[in-house]
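Researcher: Structure for this, please.
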Amino acid sequence: MRNDSINENKSEQRGCIIKILPLAVIVIIIFVILWGAGLIRIESASETTEQEDSAEEIITTSSSDFMITETEWKALQKEVKRLRSEVNQLKQGNTKPAVTHPASSTRQTAATSTTSVSSRDITLANYSHDWVNSEATVAFKNNTDRTISSITGRMIYYDMSNNMLDYQDFTKSVTIEPGMVKSITLKGYGYRDNYAYYKNGAVPTNPDRKYKVKFELKSYKQK
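Model: Predicted structure, token format:
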């Protein structure tokens, strides 16, 4: 009885194996086909680890490309400040109102600028000073073609033997039109010592207290 039951079990197992074997063969064939087509890939643990490491390296490298160092950040800030400053300067330059007028500016420049000097531009036309006055009357002639507005010069004083006694530098505002003569007053020489210009009257008791003058033009201004 036992042998019969054992034989029956073995027969059943063989029948099951025979039934499963075709199915297993079909599964293997399908797997082989899919593997050959590349739809299924068998990777080892080491390959998977290497791929993960390489992926991490790629991610790290791509991230480092976008990193900015502190030095680069400071340089970028400086560049931004410089550009802002230039923009502000351009804005100020464009919005600054024009307050000067060419015509008036030209006239002011002409009035305040010093013209190149020639000794013949302004000459001494007359000089008068007697011993009773502290100031002398001095007349100048404008030999230029423009109106004079100021004269800077030097008066040099000599005795009757042409020995130099003293000199006086001066600057006077005076309006002299072209070709015209204008008088101004300057301090006369030797008033306290009773000196007088040689063409004017001197103290009767001191006939030697006379002097001559020479005018030297330093500069002048024109309108």
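Researcher: Any notable elements?
Model: The helical segments are 2-36, 45-64, 70-95, 102-112. The mean pLDDT is 77.
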